[in-house]
């Protein structure tokens, strides 16, 4: 089985947009990978005129929100940085215990990389500014700029969602068979950790556990 | 045999796949079907049951629309493509051929503009024959096909919400606005090619086909890239109009349940109604409702009219319909179908309207077509007709101002001595005041002055509060007119508040009691009172406000001097046909005048005594 990787288009977002954007993208991906019985739930974004679909699982929603909270905390500590969130789907395989691996093994069969560039506009007071907060430099130009920027982010987000749909449609063979009673495949959301290098370490760790993707067939 | 079974399995997958896709598309594009689905969802969530059809492709969508079953049957040949056109219908001021079901009574003025904004094509291509695998291979194959179909359906579901048409669908599905557009669908096994002009503005998207043994399942869509050409402006909301000759029957049973509102629940859009001017006569008023109601309630009965004297009915039609919305509303409350704030808001708007008769609903459309498009659009769901209910009988006498035609104070008095508002009472508050008064009386408060209003307010405030907004309005308002904050009748109402020229607002009890010639029997009155109290307890805080206003308008200055009262009382109109302003001056027999005076004195006594002690009704009966 191959591990399919999808690098999503980079999105330039402001701090207050992170939560909505991440929720939208993560839930959309999971909805396409929740192949068990689901009752789809439409969610309208507040900041953008986009409706995305959740698979309606409360636990899943909680876990995703938790991860997003961690990510936001990380972003606050590392402002103005490009970051990547990795959503991976894996299969749990039991393996013969050896001296450097555990009994169970995670076989990642799909990885999604959400690329965000969290920006802080100089006109805004701080990275925690609420979107309704007054801009320091009032005037039509600021409002227009804000709305055009918002429109750009919306268009980019829409593109990302189309990208997800396209990827999901084109690559279906690598998806494992659906297990009875399981709503969604086991997944893992990886956010950048405190140090930049640690993120890379996570990747290496994952590779060690699962083996190089090309080795798997 | 096994091959047949296996091919049967494939057929089943393909057939269900098509049905599921159709269900997803219709549910995301056709507002009327979507509302049906929403109601189903609300009901099914409580039971948390999953239908058999939901289990297909692991996507719970709720009950399939009945149309879908018919379509499935008509498109039995799985090798034929299934073409689903989503058509945006722009209505001018008429119904189109596509929508002729919705407004049977609407005049057809001209053709409607129809544009195909999306075309979905679902196809099962089977170009060559391949030996069907058997045994374990077959099972694995079908599982794979099934899994891939599931994924395709997921992406279709998501895609439906990202295409431009979804925005239009959401707008048209909104219950708070009425548009002269509608989204309809057409399913066939062939498609008329687009014109070059149409094609130029369209984009295409094809989902990756799902390999299915000897063929493949494909889904593609051609859609209009931009829909900004269609100016989806909500219909102009007409200013609320006070219906001054609102009539109703005292015999309406406010608690009567109506036939299943299932049909009514799927109110389709009635944009034409919104386009109608509200200033129509009562005969025109129900027209805008009738299409919707008659559609959903073919069994609308007139039994409620049976007991009402013909004189009370200015138009049988409105009353016919009147009863229907009542139950719709009742059903709504019971089934909790209308749960959005918008809907409640609409209801509240309606509540603040002046039509205070049991058949309030007829006046509602014209009143609300301006103030409350929600109700015009989804009348069967949102007809907040509780206002009229408590006013059965006794308040009808007050309700003449509700007519949209000020010259028709056709409020049917319940007795020859019943008071009627005169022509000048074109303001709605009269009906409201009467309701208020009733509430005050029921609360055992003195109906005199404004003090009653507060007590009445308290009474209704305690009742079930459908909308926090209104309770806030009530609690924050020191005077009834504030309850009309949404009503344009506020100004006129304030005038009325100051104008004490209408009297005998308190006649209702007296007249009911004392009028022997009234068609309302004691029993009826009792039931009406009961009904009223029930309704008071139930809803219509706004109605309470309205009643209070009405009371205030019509209340004579009891704390006052009797001469003033008698003057006012004499100006009260009797069913005998004495017009208000001129009644005092019309030549009458002395006996009549004396009788009238006596009746007013009795009413005065009654009201005064009610403020303190209970007055035995029989005393007033004569």
UniProtKB/TrEMBL annotation, chain A:
<comment type="similarity">
    <text>Belongs to the ATG101 family.</text>
</comment>
<dbReference type="GO" id="GO:1990316">
    <property type="term" value="C:Atg1/ULK1 kinase complex"/>
</dbReference>
<feature type="region of interest" description="Disordered">
    <location>
        <begin position="123"/>
        <end position="149"/>
    </location>
</feature>
<dbReference type="GO" id="GO:0019901">
    <property type="term" value="F:protein kinase binding"/>
</dbReference>
<dbReference type="GO" id="GO:0000407">
    <property type="term" value="C:phagophore assembly site"/>
</dbReference>
<keyword id="KW-0072">Autophagy</keyword>
<dbReference type="GO" id="GO:0000045">
    <property type="term" value="P:autophagosome assembly"/>
</dbReference>
<feature type="compositionally biased region" description="Basic residues">
    <location>
        <begin position="123"/>
        <end position="133"/>
    </location>
</feature>
<dbReference type="InterPro" id="IPR012445">
    <property type="entry name" value="ATG101"/>
</dbReference>
<dbReference type="Pfam" id="PF07855">
    <property type="entry name" value="ATG101"/>
</dbReference>
<protein>
    <recommendedName>
        <fullName>Autophagy-related protein 101</fullName>
    </recommendedName>
</protein>
From TrEMBL, chain B:
<feature type="region of interest" description="Disordered">
    <location>
        <begin position="471"/>
        <end position="490"/>
    </location>
</feature>
<dbReference type="GO" id="GO:0005829">
    <property type="term" value="C:cytosol"/>
</dbReference>
<feature type="compositionally biased region" description="Polar residues">
    <location>
        <begin position="281"/>
        <end position="291"/>
    </location>
</feature>
<protein>
    <recommendedName>
        <fullName>Autophagy-related protein 13 N-terminal domain-containing protein</fullName>
    </recommendedName>
</protein>
<dbReference type="InterPro" id="IPR040182">
    <property type="entry name" value="ATG13"/>
</dbReference>
<dbReference type="GO" id="GO:0034497">
    <property type="term" value="P:protein localization to phagophore assembly site"/>
</dbReference>
<dbReference type="GO" id="GO:1990316">
    <property type="term" value="C:Atg1/ULK1 kinase complex"/>
</dbReference>
<feature type="domain" description="Autophagy-related protein 13 N-terminal">
    <location>
        <begin position="15"/>
        <end position="226"/>
    </location>
</feature>
<dbReference type="InterPro" id="IPR036570">
    <property type="entry name" value="HORMA_dom_sf"/>
</dbReference>
<dbReference type="GO" id="GO:0034727">
    <property type="term" value="P:piecemeal microautophagy of the nucleus"/>
</dbReference>
<feature type="region of interest" description="Disordered">
    <location>
        <begin position="253"/>
        <end position="328"/>
    </location>
</feature>
<keyword id="KW-0072">Autophagy</keyword>
<feature type="region of interest" description="Disordered">
    <location>
        <begin position="386"/>
        <end position="434"/>
    </location>
</feature>
<feature type="compositionally biased region" description="Polar residues">
    <location>
        <begin position="393"/>
        <end position="402"/>
    </location>
</feature>
<feature type="region of interest" description="Disordered">
    <location>
        <begin position="350"/>
        <end position="369"/>
    </location>
</feature>
<dbReference type="Pfam" id="PF10033">
    <property type="entry name" value="ATG13"/>
</dbReference>
<feature type="compositionally biased region" description="Polar residues">
    <location>
        <begin position="473"/>
        <end position="490"/>
    </location>
</feature>
<dbReference type="GO" id="GO:0000407">
    <property type="term" value="C:phagophore assembly site"/>
</dbReference>
<feature type="compositionally biased region" description="Low complexity">
    <location>
        <begin position="352"/>
        <end position="369"/>
    </location>
</feature>
<dbReference type="GO" id="GO:0000423">
    <property type="term" value="P:mitophagy"/>
</dbReference>
<feature type="compositionally biased region" description="Low complexity">
    <location>
        <begin position="403"/>
        <end position="412"/>
    </location>
</feature>
<dbReference type="InterPro" id="IPR018731">
    <property type="entry name" value="Atg13_N"/>
</dbReference>
């Amino acid at each position: 089985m191959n591990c399919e990787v999808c690098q999503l288009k980079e999105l330039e977002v402001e701090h207050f947009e992170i939560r909505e954007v991440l929720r939208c993208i993560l839930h959309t991906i999971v909805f396409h990978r929740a192949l068990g019985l689901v009752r789809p739930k439409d969610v309208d974004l507040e900041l953008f005129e986009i409706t995305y679909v959740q698979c309606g699982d409360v636990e899943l929603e909680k876990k995703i929100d938790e991860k997003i909270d961690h990510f936001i905390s990380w972003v606050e500590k590392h402002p103005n940085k490009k970051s990547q969130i990795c959503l991976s789907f894996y299969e749990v395989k039991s393996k013969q215990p050896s001296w450097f691996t555990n009994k169970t093994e995670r076989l990642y069969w799909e990885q999604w990389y959400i690329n965000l560039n969290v920006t802080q506009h100089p006109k805004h007071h701080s990275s925690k500014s609420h979107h309704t907060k007054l801009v320091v430099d009032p005037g039509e130009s600021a409002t227009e700029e804000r709305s055009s920027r918002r429109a750009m982010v919306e268009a980019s987000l829409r593109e990302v969602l189309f990208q997800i749909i396209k990827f999901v449609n084109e690559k279906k063979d690598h998806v494992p068979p659906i297990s009875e009673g399981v709503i969604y495949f086991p997944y893992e959301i990886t956010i950048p950790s405190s140090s930049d290098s640690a993120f890379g370490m996570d990747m290496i760790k994952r590779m060690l556990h699962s083996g190089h993707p090309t080795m798997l067939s | 045999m096994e091959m047949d079974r296996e091919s049967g399995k494939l057929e089943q997958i393909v057939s269900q796949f098509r049905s599921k896709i159709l269900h997803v598309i219709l549910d995301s594009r056709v507002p009327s079907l979507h509302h049906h689905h929403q109601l189903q969802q609300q009901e099914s969530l409580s039971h948390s049951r999953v239908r058999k059809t939901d289990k297909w492709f692991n996507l719970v969508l709720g009950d399939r629309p009945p149309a879908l079953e018919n379509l499935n049957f008509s498109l039995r040949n799985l090798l034929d493509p299934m073409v689903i056109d989503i058509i945006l219908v722009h209505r001018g001021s008429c119904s189109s051929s596509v929508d002729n079901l919705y407004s049977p009574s609407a005049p057809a003025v001209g053709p409607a503009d129809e544009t195909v904004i999306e075309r979905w094509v679902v196809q099962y291509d089977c170009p060559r024959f391949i030996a069907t695998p058997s045994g374990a291979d077959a099972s694995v194959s079908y599982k794979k096909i099934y899994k891939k179909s599931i994924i395709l359906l997921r992406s279709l579901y998501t895609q439906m919400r990202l295409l431009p048409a979804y925005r239009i669908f959401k707008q048209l599905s909104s219950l708070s606005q009425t548009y002269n557009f509608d989204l309809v669908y057409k399913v066939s096994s062939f498609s008329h090619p687009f014109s070059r002009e149409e094609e130029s503005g369209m984009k295409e998207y094809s989902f990756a086909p799902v390999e299915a043994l000897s063929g493949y399942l494909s889904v593609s869509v051609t859609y209009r890239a931009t829909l900004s050409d269609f100016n989806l402006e909500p219909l102009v909301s007409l200013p609320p109009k006070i219906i001054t000759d609102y009539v109703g029957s005292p015999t309406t049973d406010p608690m009567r349940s109506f036939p299943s509102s299932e049909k009514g629940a799927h109110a389709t859009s009635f944009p034409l109604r919104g386009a109608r001017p509200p200033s129509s006569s009562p005969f025109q008023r129900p027209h805008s409702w009738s299409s919707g109601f008659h559609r959903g309630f073919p069994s609308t009965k007139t039994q409620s009219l049976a007991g009402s004297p013909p004189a009370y009915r200015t138009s049988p039609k409105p009353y016919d319909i009147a009863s229907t919305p009542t139950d719709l509303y009742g059903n709504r409350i019971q089934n909790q179908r209308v749960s959005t704030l918008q809907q409640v808001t609409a209801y509240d708007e309606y509540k603040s309207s002046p039509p205070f008769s049991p058949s309030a609903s007829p006046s509602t459309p014209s009143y609300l077509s301006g103030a409350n498009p929600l109700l015009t659009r989804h009348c069967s769901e949102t007809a907040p007709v509780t206002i009229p209910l408590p006013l059965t009988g006794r308040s009808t006498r007050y309700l003449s101002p509700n007519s949209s035609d000020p010259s028709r104070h056709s409020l049917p008095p319940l007795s020859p001595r019943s008071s009627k508002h005169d022509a000048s009472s074109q303001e709605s508050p009269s009906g409201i005041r009467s309701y208020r008064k009733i509430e005050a009386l029921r609360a055992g408060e003195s109906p005199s002055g404004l003090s009653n209003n507060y007590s009445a307010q308290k009474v209704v405030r305690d009742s079930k509060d459908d909308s926090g907004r209104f309770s806030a309005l009530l609690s924050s308002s020191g005077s009834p007119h504030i309850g009309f904050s949404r009503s344009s009748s506020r100004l006129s109402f304030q005038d009325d508040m100051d104008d004490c020229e209408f009297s005998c607002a308190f006649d209702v009890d007296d007249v009911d009691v004392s009028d022997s010639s009234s068609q309302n029997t004691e029993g009826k009155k009792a039931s009406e009172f009961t009904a009223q109290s029930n309704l008071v307890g139930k809803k219509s805080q706004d109605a309470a406000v309205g009643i209070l206003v009405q009371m205030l308008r019509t209340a004579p200055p009891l704390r006052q001097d009797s001469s003033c009262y008698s003057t006012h009382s004499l100006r009260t109109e009797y069913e005998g046909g004495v017009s208000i302003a001129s009644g005092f001056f019309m030549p009458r027999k002395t006996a009549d005048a004396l009788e009238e005076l006596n009746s007013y004195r009795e009413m005065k006594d009654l009201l005064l005594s009610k403020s303190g002690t209970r007055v035995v009704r029989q005393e007033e009966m004569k």
